[in-house]
Amino acid sequence: MEFTITNAELTLMQLLWRESPLNAREITQKLHSEKQWHRKTVNTLLSRLEKKSALLVQKKQDGINYFSPLVDEATYMRVTTSHFVDRLFDGNIAPLIASFAESRSLDSKQLAELQGLLKELSDDD
Questions:
Q1: Average predicted confidence (pLDDT) for the chain
Q2: Is it true that the peptide bond before 95 is cis, omega within 30 degrees of 0?
Q3: Is the same domain home to 120 and 83?
Q4: CA-CA-CA-CA torsion for 8, 110, 77, 95, nearest 10 degrees?
Q5: What pLDDT, on the 0 to 100 scale, is given for residue 50?
Q6: What is the phi-psi region of residue 32: left when phi exceeds 0, alpha when psi lies from -120 to 50, beta otherwise?
Q7: Number of domains observed in the structure of the chain
Q8: Residue-by-residue DSSP string for 21-73
Q9: Does 50 share its domain with 104?
């Protein structure tokens, strides 16, 4: 998977990861209270995502297009995170975690989760 999506496109994808298939009218209604997007904006975003091969478009018997994600959320997050670490931290995770820890305080639950992940990684070696 080699595509990037904008923040607006990500908002739309997050909705479709939760609920799909949806048509443009349904998407507009569901996002309106959060984004106040008009149907034209939603159609533009859907068109962009379709061109990026991120969406499956199915025309139902009623003649209306319904949209579903072609990439699952976990895969998108994994690939995007990997690109982020490669681009900003030269592929090294330790500086990423150090940077994050310096800018935000971690509660005991988050620290325990990180320690558990590190233990799993070291056990796999």
A1: 90
A2: no
A3: no
A4: 100
A5: 95
A6: alpha
A7: 2
A8: SEEHHHHHHHHHHHH---HHHHHHHHHHHHHTT-EEEEE-TTS-EEEEESS-H
A9: no
